Amino acid sequence: MNHQMSKTSLNLKLPALLGLIALLPIVAQAHPGHGPADSFASGLNHPFHGLDHILAMVAVGLWAAQLGGRSLWLVPATFVSLMTVGGAMGMMGVPVPMVETGIMVSVLVMGLLIASAARLPLAASMSLVGLFAIFHGFAHGAEIPAAASGLSYGLGFVLATAMLHACGIALGIFAKKSLAAPAIRFAGAAIMICGLCLWLA
Predict the structure, then answer these.
(1) How many domains in the chain?
(2) Range of the domain at 11
(3) Is 33 part of any domain?
(4) Full-prediction pTM beyond 0.90?
């Protein structure tokens, strides 16, 4: 009986989780264009403009939830920390090669890691997301005008990033607690496919 109820719960909640992932492109389209990058509000808004940023940042949260343990907070914290470094590099004009490629690769690789339920050592997991974070941070930081407040803008996009990580973590924890853990892997595959489509577009 319990097995039947668990199966029914999985059948009901799996589509709900996948539906939330499917809504990500709609969220991105709801914020066309990047607008002025010169304030806390624009920094907060910026990560929601690009589907590549949304997918990568939600994926970090999903993977952290999938890994569990200390990874649940250390992996997202590493991303936020190194993204801040990348943002400062972008604001200062420090050259970082192949930024757009790095961002696209981050979406593909994060999706693959989630889809395959890869369990890397904690140090390797932190190093990988940290590398990707530099590309994302640089892209954010490079867009701010020299005369604008880098601190206000930076605080905005750091908060937005943490919010997207939290969404991924919440989805992952919800899936695991509702016995729909396989849905996390399906979400990873969807992220990977979206990343591939963005790259080929």
Answers:
(1) 1
(2) 2-24+38-200
(3) no
(4) no
